[in-house]
Amino acid sequence: MKRRFSSIRFLFIRSHLNGWFITTVTILAILLTVYVLFSPGWLTAGSIFLFISLYIVLGIIIAIYTGFTTSGNLKTKMDGISVVIKHFANGNYNSRLSYVEDSDEITRIGDELNELGEKLGEQVKSLQRMADEKSELAKTAHKSAVIEERQRLARDLHDAVSQQLFALTMMSEAALKQIDRSPEKAKKQLTEVVKAGAQTQTEMRALLLHLRPVQLSGDSLQTGIQKLVEELKQKSRIEFQLALEANLMLSETVEEHVFRIVQEALSNILRHANATTVKIEIFARSRELFVHIRDNGKGFDLEEDSEKKTSYGLKTMRERTEELGGRFTIRTNIDEGTYIDIRIPM
Known about the structure:
This protein has 346 residues and is α+β, with helices and mostly antiparallel strands.
């Protein structure tokens, strides 16, 4: 209610009422001064009271009416500016203001806002052109990229899978020694071996996921993601829910970046989330591409995990999104799953 009465329209009405009040007090003071000093026959206390009463009633009505009507044009302009700014904040830089009236301060602000929208749109196009150029450069440097990827996979294999296999060997040997002397203890140790083996298998699936080619190999984005998910369904117990809009008109660079973002997200889910359900949505609305990825895993604390391996994958996804002029948002909490929201201008 307080916010409503502080709007432009009510500010105009209050300013008219303030002017009416000052005028009323001034007229009343003049009439009383003339009445006291000169006492003319035509000016009596009753006539002063009648005149002021009519002036008060008519003045209030006129002040409210004129304040309400004269503020309409300004309110329309300000509402239009507010809508355009909100569109810009959401990444829709094609929104424009159009005023027919003669130039004034508000109209000039609208024109400057239109120019800002054009510049922002050009910057997004420039970013996407740079992404296209970067994609071409990446193709020419494919050999060095392969070597770098092999080195990274070698590090991951050494840091994760190799150590887990060593631990499996040690636990298996310990269990063998305990089979005859303490079967119950051996059983517990074998249970740990099974858990460690499942974890190692998950790590390997996530690493193999990165061995897929960067390009979609001629497939559309929808087909590529469906193939990726079908492959993961055969190798994991995760339930996938896909909502992929068909016939999206995207450039090759955008498709490759989005595919790699989804691939990176699924890799993180396999390795860290312990999720049973993953939902992927990709669709276009109002000249924007929306990518939503949700899982029901264990989640994590973004601040505490900023230095861990999960942050590397998130950083990669954020960088790919920003290269396309988009926005990357992640919401997560411990035991509440993870939700990734990506918006890319088309």
